[in-house]
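With this grant's support, we have settled on a layout for protein records. An illustrative entry appears below exactly as we store it:
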Amino acid sequence: MGHAIRRTVLRHTGIPVRVLIGGTKTLAKLASVGEKKDPSGNNAMHLGKYTPEQLDRIMESMPTTEIWGIAVGTGKKLAARGFYTVKGLRDSDPKHIRQKFAVVQERTTMELRGVTCIELEEQPRELKDH
């Protein structure tokens, strides 16, 4: 499906795009990192193609700062509390993360588990006002 979407967008707009699919918005962004590291997907990546064990290994190899919304400063704070990898954050207690950081990091933790906390937008924000 991702390759079909790429072809359709290219054909109708002339713009090459990458298609990244995950169970949540954060997991789709994580697919973006994976697609860059594994170009065999040819600009389309679906995290569902990986077994849970493979996904664990991928997340274990990625620092928390690879996650959408985790900047270097927050990554350092997470590391100071023992959360170095995406897998470590995913497997942490979300309530503990919220207490020590913020609701944003709690949502990120839940999204890494496949729980939708950040809704997809039907249309770009700038078009909603018009």
About this structure: The chain is about 55% helix and 5% strand. The chain has a mean pLDDT of 86. The first helix runs from residue 2 to 13.
